[in-house]
Specification:
six-stranded mixed sheet, three-stranded antiparallel sheet, 1 helix, 9 strands, elongated
C-alpha cells in the first residue's frame, strides 16, 4: 500500500505541472475560485482518454465557515446534468482542512476517473463543492472530449 503522504505529494507535483484552465463559474456563492487545474490537460477542450484518471486541483477561498464539504460532479449534455461518480466526494478528505474557515484559501485535490465503458462524446464537466448547508463553495464547468 502506498503511504498517504506520498499520494498527496504526487498529487501536488502533478498539480504544479498542470496549466490553469479557462473555466466557467457556475454559481460559486460561498467561495471564490482562484484557479482550476486538470492534469494532464495541455489544451482545451480536455481530451479525456477512457480508462485514465485525471488529477483535479481547485484553489479557492471561502466566504463562510463550514464543518464539512461534499463534491458533486456531473456530465452535462443538452443542458441535462448526469451524475458522474468520483472516488472521494468528501472535501475534508480531499486536501481541505476542516472545519473550513471564512477568508481562508484552500487547495481541493481529487481524481476524475474516466471509465472504459463511457461513450466517446463531447460534453461539459460540471464540478460543485457544497458546504454543510448545501450551498456552493464553488462550481465550475469545462468542455471535454471523451476518447478511446
Amino acid at each position: 500500500m502506498v503511504p498517504p503522504t506520498l499520494v498527496l505529494l504526487l498529487a501536488l507535483v502533478a498539480a504544479a505541472l498542470a496549466e490553469p484552465l479557462r473555466f466557467v463559474d457556475c454559481g460559486s456563492k460561498d467561495g471564490s475560485i482562484q484557479e482550476v487545474n486538470v492534469s494532464p490537460c495541455p489544451t482545451q477542450p480536455c481530451q479525456l482518454v477512457k480508462g485514465t484518471s485525471y488529477s483535479i486541483n481547485v484553489t479557492f477561498s471561502s466566504k463562510i465557515e463550514s464543518q464539512g464539504s461534499k463534491a458533486k460532479v456531473y456530465g452535462e449534455m443538452l443542458h441535462v446534468d448526469i451524475p458522474f461518480p468520483i472516488p472521494e466526494p468528501d472535501g475534508c478528505k480531499s486536501g481541505i482542512q476542516c472545519p473550513i474557515q471564512k477568508g481562508h484559501s484552500y487547495s481541493y485535490l481529487n481524481k476524475l476517473p474516466v471509465k472504459s465503458e463511457y461513450p466517446s462524446i463531447k460534453l461539459i464537466v460540471k464540478w460543485e463543492l457544497v458546504d454543510d448547508q448545501d450551498q456552493m463553495l464553488f462550481c465550475w464547468k469545462i468542455p471535454v472530449q471523451i476518447t478511446s
